[in-house]
Amino acid sequence: RICVITLAEAHPLLQNGKTITSINYQISANCSRLQNKVSGKSKRGAQFLTELAPLCRISSSDGEEYTIYSCIRGRLIEVNENILSNPAILQEKPSTEGYIAVVLPKFEESKSITQGLLTQKEYEEVLLKRLNSSS
C-alpha cells in the first residue's frame, strides 16, 4: 500500500547523459521535506501531500531545474537523504536505491490510485506514441 516515488525511465534527467548537480528538498522558505518527522503506527507528524505537492528540486549540469511532484495524495513517510550526498544513484539506480520519497496514501484511496496506474507495457506504448508524435 506504500508508494515509492522514483524518476520515470523517460524523464529528461535520465536521458542524454545529463549530470545531476544538486537535489534540494527545501520547497519554500517555511517547508523542507527533510523536516518531516514521522512516529508511531499512525505515522504522526508526517507531512500531508496532494498530487501537486512538490517533493524536491533537481538541478542538472546544463542549468535545467526540475521540480519533482508527489503525483499522489498521502502522508510523506520518508525522503531519500542518500541522494543528497550521492546524486549519481538517482540516475544509476532510479528504481531502487535512487528513489526520491515514500508516500503512504489513505487506505480508502489506495485502491483507486492503483487502478489508475499503467502497466509496464501500457507505459512503454505511451512513450512510443510520444516519441513518434515528436519526430
Secondary structure blueprint with pairings:
Blueprint: E1 3-5, E2 20-24, E3 26-28, E4 31-32, E5 48-49, E6 54-60, E7 65-69, E8 74-79, H1 82-85, H2 88-92, E9 101-104, H3 107-115, H4 120-134
Antiparallel strand pairs: 1-9, 2-6, 3-4, 5-8, 6-7, 8-9
Describe the protein in words:
- The protein has a single domain (1-132), classed as OB fold (Dihydrolipoamide Acetyltransferase, E2P).
- The longest helix has 15 residues, at 120-134.
- It is globular and about 50 Å long.
- With 135 residues, the chain is an alpha+beta fold.
- Strand 3 and strand 4 form a beta hairpin.
- It has a 4-stranded antiparallel β-sheet with strand order 1-9-8-5, with no helix packed on it. A 3-stranded antiparallel β-sheet has the order 2-6-7. It has a two-stranded antiparallel sheet with strand order 3-4.
- It has 4 helices and 9 strands.
- It starts with a strand and ends with a helix.
- The protein has helices at residues 82-85, 88-92, 107-115, 120-134, and strands spanning 3-5, 20-24, 26-28, 31-32, 48-49, 54-60, 65-69, 74-79, 101-104.
